[in-house]
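Dear support,

Our group has been running a series of protein-ligand predictions, and this particular one with histidyl-adenosine monophosphate is the one our PI (initials K.S.) wants archived with full inputs and outputs. We had some confusion internally about which version of the output was final, so please treat the block below as the authoritative record. The input we submitted was:
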Amino acid sequence: MNESNKMHMPPRGMRDFYPDDMRIRNAIFNAWRQASLAFGFDEYDACVVESLDLLIRKAGEEIVEQIYSFKDKSGRDLALRPEMTPTLARMIAARQGSLGFPLKWFTIAQCFRYERMTRGRKREHYQWNLDIVGEESVTAETEIIATAVNALKLLGLDKNSLTVRFSSRELLAELLAGLGIERRHYPTVFLTLDKRRKINDTETEQLLINAGIDAGTIKKIFSLLQIESLDQAEKMLATQHTSEHAMETIRKFMTLLDTYGISDMVAFDISVVRGLAYYTGIVFEAFDTCGEFRAVFGGGRYDNLLSDIGGKPATGVGLGFGDVVIAEILSARNKSFGNVSSGRMEVGYMEETQRITAMKIAASFRKKSYNVGLSLKPEKAKAFFSRAGKSGAQQAVFIGPDDIASGSIRLKNLISRLEERIPLSHLCDD
Ligand code: HAM
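Confirmed final output from the archive:
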């Protein structure tokens, strides 16, 4: 790429949205918003710039290393948010006494992460966040997943398109306890197990050794990952005589998924751990069934985040669903979001003397809730219809001296090519 071409590109990993890109983005946002409202979530928003302190956690998460941080002119340490969850916790903590719980909130948040750029990963993305705070039962997890499935349906993706794989950090903790592993090691074990998809077993082992876990224990941890089903996990727990709470929760979760009619989309997978330190219970990640793309959405239960940032204890469950991978999936499946809109119209005129009439016609259709593009100057009919055809308008009106003389205009459907005559008196008399 030469220097002048480079000047026209956004910074690496950041995105421009031309009108064609906006159509896809809007279709995705509309599905997210429609599904959220259908399931009774309230919309919220917050500042993109956050205090760095809120976002820094010491557990060694990748996301913390990827933060875009800077100092403002007064020397405050600030950052572009890499995710919305700490901000959500901050906002709830600020009004915890007056908010009604459980609360169900959603947002579409622009997030920034200094990622290594791969397919499905950008340095800037939009993320639909759905969270339920203050509900202890697994109805919260089920409701969140059902809402996401509804959004997929609105985008034309059926139940066979995606699988939601889930596990439980509580279950893993119980299994680790059964193996005699000390509680203080759990956060490191979780984050290291999550990295396994990107690093090999030797590297994983090294990370665990660095964290102070001995080779014998590491072998036992690896053995946990061989668990292939819930029954197998249950049998292992039975021999270890640890708590049964996690397994009971998972069983309730499965029953509820069945009631919601989505159990066939959800599968237990012990290797789902998630890379964020705040999760404490059920965790889940959704992938396309062909296994071609990165995670479409991910989330889980977080019990301690509110208290960790100085709020009163409150449990939360939520997910983040990015726009990048879903757009790739929709494009691979040739799902297009046509630019022709039935509510869109173009109005043009041949000569300056027809401009006032054209303005009145445009105003009249706008009153009827059409989105009308009015020509900014007189045009030849050929140039007007060629422009109108590319604009996404379904209908067009082009006025010449003959139309004024006849007292009526021709409303042309640009798709069917049919024309309808409308008396000018119906449009210009207001
Ligand atoms: P996360 O797994 O880090 O979770 O991100 C959630 C989703 O955001 C991913 O599954 C993916 O769709 C999208 N995403 C993340 N990073 C990128 C990127 N660099 N480029 C494109 N898409 C990306 C969270 O952020 C949690 N805060 C979600 C959550 C909400 N948990 C509870 N409530």
